[in-house]
Specification:
Length: 339
């Protein structure tokens, strides 16, 4: 009988199956209640004492071989089914997939980048922790210049030369130091000012500043470029440049877009004037060019800066700037359908 069992072991080892049903039939034949193994175990008591040990060992080997066979065949067939995509419980409810949304600041920033890329501007970036030279001195704001007060600055306490940049004009200084004209670059990024936090202002916000330097760049080029931008961004082509002052540009201006007075919201956001201020601009001061080793007798340029948060608030009618940095999912979820 032992030889008989040994033959079965070889048979089990050689067994192959294509379907789960074949595996199940095999399992029942060997390991089922009325299967061969149980029959052999029942036989055990009739085996002569001197053969009991070998007999016992042999049926145990058969049992183990059959069990292993069933397990490997089942695993093989299941993994084949998974590949075909029919495994698992098809009636189970689907996993709720959380769809993310882009932050409104990113949406607006990307739109601005797209618009300026289409007219040949590249994107430049720089550090948020700046030194005095790049944020102020190179921009024609020497030490003790009163205009430094225009921008409430966060200084690093132990080193007054290091500060959190108050505008991304600092990136433009870096760009001019490292690149030769013609220069066409926009610098998006986060900036910091020591202001009380309210619905209208925050101690950090986002800007995109633009810089164009070449031979014979004129104020008319600046106006055309801004007009192109407002038309693409807001669908509004009427702009007005109001005389203003920035230490790094001369002449300087505030940029206003004519928003119109068609709806109640138009009245509210333009305070009844129809005009909306979106940023500052001007012709780069020759001192700034010289500070950045660009020959001001040969080259001229313009620069401008617009606030991303302000534009996002305008486009999405967000009435509290703090919502932009609180990361409240209920707020952010509303931008799922945006670009
Ligand atoms: N840097 C200015 C600001 O942060 C904006 C600006 C940029 C104005 C370029 C003129 C030219 O307020």
């Amino acid at each position: 009988m032992i030889d008989n069992i040994k033959e079965l072991i070889t048979e089990v080892e050689a067994f192959k199956a294509q379907t789960k049903e074949e595996v199940e039939a095999f399992r029942i034949k060997y390991l089922g209640k009325k299967g061969l193994l149980n029959a052999f175990f029942a036989e055990f008591k009739n085996v002569a004492n001197d053969q009991k040990k070998e007999f016992g060992q042999t049926i145990n080997t058969l049992k183990k071989t059959a069990e292993d066979k069933v397990n490997t065949l089942k695993a093989e067939l299941e993994s084949k089914e998974e590949v075909k995509g029919v495994s698992g419980d098809l009636s189970r409810p689907g996993e709720p997939l959380q769809i993310g949304a882009r932050h409104p600041i990113s949406i607006v920033k990307n739109q601005i980048i797209d618009i300026f890329s289409s007219i040949g501007f590249n994107v430049s970036e720089g550090p948020e922790i700046e030194d005095d030279w790049h944020n102020f001195t190179a921009l024609n704001l020497p030490e003790y210049h009163p205009a430094r007060d225009m921008q409430d600055t966060f200084f690093i306490q132990t080193n007054p030369d290091i500060l959190l940049r108050t505008h991304t004009s600092s990136v433009q200084v870096r760009y001019m130091e490292n690149n030769k004209p013609p220069i066409r670059t926009i610098s998006p990024g986060r900036v910091y000012r020591n202001e009380a936090i309210s619905a209208r202002s925050h101690c950090f916000f986002h800007q995109v500043e633009g810089l164009y330097i070449d031979k014979d760049v004129s104020f008319a080029d600046l106006k055309q470029t801004l007009q192109y931008f407002t038309t693409e961004m807001f669908g509004k082509s009427k702009i007005r440049l109001r005389p203003s002052y920035f230490p790094f540009t001369e002449p300087s201006a505030e940029i206003d877009v004519y928003w119109g007075l068609e709806t109640e919201t138009d009245y509210k956001i333009t305070k009844g004037t129809g005009w909306l201020e979106i940023g500052g601009c001007g012709m780069v001061d020759p001192n700034v060019l010289e500070n950045c080793k660009i020959d001001a007798t040969e080259y001229s340029g313009f620069a401008f800066g617009v606030g991303i948060d302000r534009i996002a608030m305008l486009l999405y009618q967000i009435d509290d700037i703090r919502l932009l940095s609180e990361n409240d999912v209920r707020f952010l979820e509303q931008f799922k359908s945006a670009l």
